[in-house]
Amino acid sequence: MQPQELVIISGKGGTGKTSIAAAFADYFPNKVLADGDVDAADLFLVLQVTETQIAEFQSGHIAEIDPDKCRQCGKCAALCRFDAIVTSESGYQVDARACEGCKVCVNACPHHAIEWKEAFCGLWKESRTAQGTLFHASLYPGAENSGKLVSFLRDKARKKAMDEGIPLILVDGPPGIGCPVIASITGAARILVVTEPTPSGYHDLERVLALAKHFQIPTHILINKADLETSYLKKMEDCAAKSGATVIGQIPYSPLFSEAQQKGQSILKAFPTSPEAETLRTIATILKQKMDESEAEGQK
Amino acid sequence: MKIAFSTNGNTLESLLDTRFGRCSRFLILDTETNHYEILENTQNLNAVQGAGIQSAQTVLETGAQALITGHCGPKAFKVLHAAGIAIYLADNRPIDELAKTFAAGKLAELTDADVEGHW
Amino acid sequence: MQIAIASGKGGTGKTSLAVSLFLANRDRSRLLDCDVEEPNCHLFLATRFVSRTSVEKRIPLLNPDLCKHCGKCVEACQFNALAEAGKAGILVFEELCHSCGGCTFVCPTGALHETPLKMGAITRALVAGKAELITGALAIGHTETPSLIRAVKKTRPDPEVAFTLIDAPPGTACAFAAAVEHTDFVLLVAEETPFGLHDLKLAIKALQKMEIPFAVVLNRMRPGFSSVLEFCKEKNYPLWLQIPESRAIAETYARGGTLLDAMPELEESLRLLLDQCAEAILCNPRN
Fold first, then answer.
1. Are C15 and C261 spatial neighbours (Cβ–Cβ below 8 Å)?
2. Architecture of domain B2-103
């Protein structure tokens, strides 16, 4: 059986995407989790995690000058467009932070003194949680985030789900609208966009919906902090209708999300009887129903 | 004719991987002999950008005349189209089933990119 | 003096603070919007357009008559910006090009030469008479975020303007690094939540590695919550401004207003905040 993948994205940061993802992690019984928000991977903070595997993640390459072979001809420094070849008392060196990984110096060095080394952009982890296996990552400071790491985590989650016959993969996607977001939604069964009624929230929602439409993925919108400015509801509904998406629910501006975070829990666990938790359970039920329906349709 | 399928599996029963640029491997099926070969797409998975462009070149080298995949971005489309490879879009169904659907002429050919590359 | 306003994650109120700090100090500062993938400072300011300049990069241009299809350029390109498309020859994907010059360098027949291409724009606008807002905007599909940020930072200030404020992109990845590198000081905006604390720690780690001094601005303070506050106290990190959690601020923001619109009484604190930055910069033994 093919597991279904539900991806939660937001466009703008800070809309409450991870808090909603955590609530769903508590709601859905049997799933694998992936935190694709590798820049600010916070999901693990509200799930009690035990890391079972940890490894470096390779991405691109970086040049390194071997001082024993270098004859100080300076050809590399003359060709480098990124000011990444610097001189010190001990001769030419590569400034790792400035190196773009273009390999021009490696190819140009007449003495083959520049090595081409694999670069590592962070760590990826597999963790055990009460809510299921979680695949997550942490980027090294200043490293380049890319769709590649997000795709890698999704692949790990998919493999786990296939191997163990788990029907659902829940992905906390990256913010923004760039390459990592595309990498997080391609081939997904369903998207939930968590947005907020603010100028930048609305602006990014439009772009995220256009993206989802292009990939032909069924998409729902959850408006968080909905009561801050109610005039957005109509605009967001219109915007959703244009791209074939639906507004699936609204949650008011509520301090309970931060309070649940403080307890290291999702809102469903911390405040199970609150109206916010009730609304989220209803939304999750509808999502589940819709995913079951499209799966049944797919098998016909 | 030779057809390339994007997949995560190793056999004709394997499912199509709807991702083109970042699929694990390609299955190249020769429809005359029904023989197939598997080609890893590892290098593409390690590319920070332009995975689709690299995958397109990989498919080109196999001599396939058609590609069946789930989505094809504008850059990969440009390469495949320029090289004269026809692209057909399908769901994540078993490859043997899709080969039959294709033979029956029931897969639609992609004439324009269905995916925007960057936003 | 260059002072960047940054945060480990999005949605902490960074842009709102940057714009408010700029407005409160408009007589002595200018603002650079370096969140070039999503520049939005201008959404919160009444601006008068002055000028726009293109930012170019160099891309390879192929002369098919000279190309022998050896494939050396495709092999040399580490960014997949060149592709061999069978009988159609070499294709160039300009958006993916990093302008490293590697392909023209290896081409044995001189079939490639470089030509300029627009990858973004820098817009200059005035706020409240003469305060300057400089906005960098990356053209859609392009990936050279750090280069454009560096170009925005190279724009020259009026010598009478003492402070250059920089609204940095969120996160701690390469775009953040490009925005904060070579600045004199960074104000880190954090929110008083466990997520906020975690992301603040990441940002601090990045700044310490780059050896840039910083202070923390704590947003969304609520009674009974103090994890970020205690963390700063314990580590002896300067915490210079605290902003309460307030529905009124959130509502003002939803309507397109800034922190300063919601709390005009902050003006004096925001002037003091900049003075504090200046003092820290002048006392920094490195300077």
1. no
2. 2-Layer Sandwich (3.30)
Q: What is the ipTM of this complex?
A: 0.89
- For C112, the domain range is 58-118
Query: CB distance from C248 to chain A under 8 Å?
Result: no
Q: Do A102 and C10 touch (CB under 8 A)?
A: no
Q: Name the pairing type of β-strands C29-33 and C90-92.
A: unpaired
The 3-class SS string of B16-79 reads ECCCCCCCCEEEEEECCCCEEEEEECHHHHCCCCCHHHHHHHHHHHHCCCEEEECCCCHHHHHH
- Under an 8 A CB cutoff, do C253 and A198 touch? yes
User: Does residue C51 sit within a domain?
Assistant: no
Closest approach of A293 to chain C, Cα-based (Å): 35
Give Cα C53 distance to the centre of its chain. Answer: 18
Q: What is the number of domains present in chain C?
A: 2
Based on the fold, state whether residues C88 and C136 are members of the same structural domain. Answer: no
B-facing residues of A in 161-220 (CB < 8 A) are 177-179, 181-183, 186-187, 207, 210-211, 214-216
Pick among C100, C145, C245 to test the A interface (most A CBs inside 10 A): C100
Could you give all domains of chain A from N- to C-terminal order, each with its CATH number? 4-48+130-299 (3.40.50.300), 60-120 (3.30.70.20)
pLDDT 10s digits, B15-58: 999 888 888 899 999 999 999 999 998 765 556 678 889 999 99
Residues of chain C with pLDDT below 50 are none
Question: What confidence category does residue B117 fall into, taking pLDDT thresholds of 50, 70 and 90?
Answer: very low
